[in-house]
Amino acid sequence: MKFAKLIFYSLFVLVIAAGCSKEKEETKKEVITESKENGSEKEQNNEKQAEAENKETESKEEAEVYVAEETFEEIAFQNVNWFFGSPERQPKGGIWVFTEEKHAGELEETFEWEKEDVLLVQINDPAYINHEMTIKGLQIIDEKTVKIVVSLESKEAKGDTVPRRYVTVEKDTLIGKSFLLEDEKTGEAIKLN
Predict the structure, then answer these.
(1) What is the DSSP annotation of 54-118?
(2) How many angstroms separate the CA atoms of 38 and 142, rounded?
(3) What is the pLDDT of residues 30-64, one digit of tens each?
(4) CA atoms within 13 A on the CB side of 33
(5) Strands 178-183 and 145-154
(6) Structure pTM?
């Protein structure tokens, strides 16, 4: 009986040992298979990364480089809309700065002269007859020059009217300044007469 038990235990240990050794062989195979898969995945990732870098390089080569447009400090203003009739147009085109001390009599009660000045821009160039003008910006070019950027849109009107626009600005902002007049769409200078 001792002999039978010994044989039984020996066979039991052999079966367990054989099972463990097969498990190790399978584990080795799994590790090798996984490493091959990981290797091919790494290769695919490397290929994808290389393709992405190539595309990025190509897009950099194809992309245009732009220089920022020149910008200027702007003066705050408010376009004036007339509800109960507007003042008469000036006999010629020009740019006028009306202040508390110097303004047309018909404007006396219209503005708060203690707080604001008024800029009038009128274009008498025949090319702009029957156009509506809106001032889009007052840009400080330097300490003595202000660029007035305007939008001019054709409109149907009775008779021949020249475009003009009044705007209010903070008091003393435009005193002693010279002016350039520029079309917003084309960037070209506009003649007043």
Answers:
(1) HHHHHHHHHSPP-PPPP--EE--EEE---SS--PPPPSS-EEEEE-SSS--GGGTTTS-TTTEEE
(2) 65
(3) 555 555 555 566 677 777 787 777 666 665 566 78
(4) 6
(5) parallel
(6) 0.63
